[in-house]
Amino acid sequence: MEKLRVMELFGGIGSATQAFKKTKIPFEIVDYIEIDEFAVRSYNAMNNTNFEPQDITKWNKDIEVDFIMHGSPLSRF
Ligand SMILES: C[S@@+](CC[C@H](N)C(=O)[O-])C[C@H]1O[C@@H](n2cnc3c(N)ncnc32)[C@H](O)[C@@H]1O
């Protein structure tokens, strides 16, 4: 079975990724966008990944995703 290509926006420590793991659906996180470096460090530690902090307002990648999940801040986006 092919893995679902998932992207997490405003990922924080990655509660959406943790929840997705419980679905047992094979997936890979193709990108994770979070500006706070400490949250990114936590996410990487929990998911064995190597993401860098990224600002969504500057994000400009050309990638294919099947599923986007997010929990954006209410006031700005
Ligand atoms: C409501 S919280 C999401 C929490 C996340 N679902 C979790 O499990 O930790 C919103 C997140 O958006 C991040 N954020 C705010 N502005 C951002 C920006 N310009 N680019 C990327 N992330 C941003 C904040 O640092 C914060 O972690």
3D architecture notes:
By secondary structure, this protein is an alpha/beta fold. It has a single domain, classed as Vaccinia Virus protein VP39 (Rossmann fold, 3-Layer(aba) Sandwich), CATH 3.40.50. It is built from 2 helices and 3 strands. It has helices spanning 15-21, 37-47, and strands at 4-9, 27-33, 67-70. Strands 2-1-3 form a 3-stranded parallel sheet, with helices on one face. Helix 1 links the parallel strand 1 and strand 2 (27-33). The mean pLDDT is 94. S-adenosylmethionine binds next to helix 1. S-adenosylmethionine is lined by residues 10-16, 33-36, 39, 55-57, 71, 73.
Give the helices and strands as they follow along the chain. Answer: EHEHE
Summed over residues and divided by their number, the pLDDT gives a mean of 94
- Order of strands across the widest beta sheet? 2-1-3
Total helical elements: 2
Structural class, judged by helices and strands?
A: alpha/beta
List strands and helices in order, with pairings:
Blueprint: E1 4-9, H1 15-21, E2 27-33, H2 37-47, E3 67-70
Parallel strand pairs: 1-2, 1-3
The chain binds S-adenosylmethionine.
The site of S-adenosylmethionine has 17 residues, from helix 1.
What's the gist of this structure?
The chain has one domain (4-70): 3-Layer(aba) Sandwich (Rossmann fold), CATH 3.40.50.150. It has 2 helices and 3 strands, in the order E-H-E-H-E. It has helices spanning 15-21, 37-47, and strands at residues 4-9, 27-33, 67-70.
